[in-house]
Amino acid sequence: INIIPDKWHQGLKTEFRNEIGEKNTYIENARLAYGTEKYFIDFNPTYIHTDGEKNDGDYDYAYEKFGFSLGAGIKPAENLSFEFTSLFSDNDAALSSSPSLDMEHRLIKNQAFENQHHENRFYHLGGVLSHTPNSFWDYTLKAGYGNTQRQYFWSDTSGDQSEHKGSTTYYEMQHNLYPTDWFTLTIGADYEASDYQDQEPFDSYQGIYDPVTFDHEWDVWDVFSNLQFSFLDESLLMNIGGRYNDHEKFDAKGVWE
Question: How many CB atoms lie within 10 A of CB 203?
Fold first, then answer.
């Protein structure tokens, strides 16, 4: 994932932003980054909190979130670099009733419940290796892992919760060949594996909180290529490319343009 806008910069950079509003609303954000021609590191945390509106109810529509992005890179040689990126987010928000209309068609606003809320967590890790062995060839290797989880707390009763979570692992390889000044050949492949898990109470209305689970996995791989022709001092470009996709659960498909 390319989330760091300023990578191989020189020196130290710091930023801090703070916003304060009504309903105990706070937005805090900072950035600490340091880089040279050989390495860089960039850390950017964020915190958000608000009590939210009551909408004439008894409880606040509370929301809280913490997250950050982190990036780092190193160049052992002029033609070789490693980069790492990470995203993390964790938030908690109140659940509420649905808005409705009364007998006179007046709006009844949604109102937060006392003890119902949902929590969401997400993180992603990614790495890239870039290498240029010579003037006719360069390549990149990429790997990533993402994980997400959502939990619904319907009451304080043990087992009266729903959980949905999933993860994805991704690998990619791409080679670029430059046999002439006017022709570039790109070839590559990628692979993606996903896993989704779901858990619900059997029948919370009847007081049966035994978990019912669901687990589903699938994978997909692709191969792709592109031919680029350059004319008139690179003022005119023509591309011919294609991708073949083989999904475990769907029909294989090729796309060309």
Answer: 11
Q: How many CA atoms lie less than 13 Å away from 68 in the CB half-sphere?
A: 9
d(CA 136, CA 138): 7
**What is the structure's pLDDT at 160?**
87
pLDDT at 3: 63
List CB contacts of 87: < 8 A, sequence separation 6 or more: 1, 3, 67, 68, 69, 122, 123, 124
The CA-based angle 152-155-156, given to 5 degrees, is: 115
Model confidence pLDDT, tens digit, residues 93-111: 998 888 888 888 888 888 8
**What are the residues facing 100 on neighbouring strands?**
108
Alpha carbon separation from 9 to 3, 38, 39 (Å, rounded): 15, 10, 9
